[in-house]
Amino acid sequence: MSGSRSSADDPQNIDPDVRETAAGLATGDRSDTLLQTDGLIKQFGGFTATDEPGFAVEEGELRCLIGPNGAGKSTLLKLITGTHEPTAGSIYYDGDDITDLPPHERVKRGISMKFQVPSVYGDLTVRENAQLPIQRLVTGDDRNRRIEETIAAAGLEGYEDVPASDLSHGQQQQLEIGMAASLQPDLLLLDEPVAGLSVEERRGIADRVTALNEERGIAFVVIEHDTDFVAEIADAVTVLHRGDVFREGSISEIEADPEVRRIYLGEGGEE
After folding, report:
1. Residue closest to 175 by CA, chosen among 206, 197, 153, 196
2. Are 225 and 192 spatial neighbours (Cβ–Cβ below 8 Å)?
3. CA distance 221 to 39
4. CB burial class (10 A; 0-12, 13-18, 19+) of residue 2?
5. Which residues, in sequence order, are CB contacts of 158 under 8 Å at separation 6+?
């Protein structure tokens, strides 16, 4: 994976004449931080959707991003993927400043995203959908192996020849997560992956996410309102409010925080 680092580096042995960039200092080989934002601002006209959140993700971490409607959660993820351009500030990833990179270059660097609404092709089979992300990357036996890995990661063995339109909404979500993971990212961003799903379907998504995190070491940032789901998967939780980081901690710490409960009960609403 592109985000792997050498633990043998000793800061005391660094040549003092070698000047590291801000990105290298924040997310380089001597840091466990994979992603870091710095003074990041996104404005839409006179409205500030993202207001300098000090947001960071560690290698292999499974972090959930929560907050009231309008907190700027989806905007932050779109800034990270390059879907939105920031008004000001920087995004550091794996030792590099990626602020000005187009989305496809960020994918090459190891960032992948699954948006809230599934975008699988209903008239194609599960196998054909699984082939789409990698068809220009690998051929022959390698392609077939990656397709089988994608289907397994989605928990859809036995559905290979089923049209995606015949899958349940939860299975379509699982398929798309598997497709995003087939690009072998170091960081996978998920926007409300269990919205509208049954308890059983939510459990299936949780299983898929935790397996990819534990078995492949993929770091996740997951936007989600369902705190039961968050409690099931998250290593750490970031609460976003009015475009900035409001609280960070474990899900138990976040749920016990009276200020977090206050903003969920009636304040916010500006995205």
Report:
1. 153
2. yes
3. 19
4. middle
5. none
Q: Which residues of 88-115 are buried (b: 16+ CB within 10 A; e: fewer)?
A: ebbbbbbbebbbebeeeebbebbbbbbb
Give kind and range of the element (H or E) at residue 202: helix 199-216
How far apart are the C-alpha atoms of 38 and 54, rounded to whole Å? 6
Cα distance from N-terminal residue to C-terminal residue, the chain:
34
For residue 93 the two structure tokens come to 């990833």
Q: Measure Cα distances from 109 to 3, 31, 69 in Å.
A: 9, 17, 30
Instruction: Pick the closest to residue 220 from 192, 261, 187 (CA basis).
Output: 187
Residue 237 tokens, joined = 């939780």
DSSP string for residues in 57-95:
EETT-EEEEE-STTSSHHHHHHHHHTSS--SEEEEEETT
Least Cα distance to 111 among 148, 49, 57 occurs for 57
In one letter, which amino acid is 219?
A: A
- Which tokens in the block code for residue 1? 């994976």
Q: What is the pLDDT of residues 44-92, one digit of tens each?
A: 999 999 999 999 999 999 999 999 988 999 999 999 999 999 999 999 9
pLDDT tens by residue, 95-124: 999 999 999 999 999 999 987 666 799 999
The pTM assigned to this predicted structure is 0.87
Question: Is the Cβ–Cβ distance between 67 and 246 less than 8 Å?
Answer: yes
CATH homologous superfamily for the domain 61-83+100-266: P-loop containing nucleotide triphosphate hydrolases (3.40.50.300)
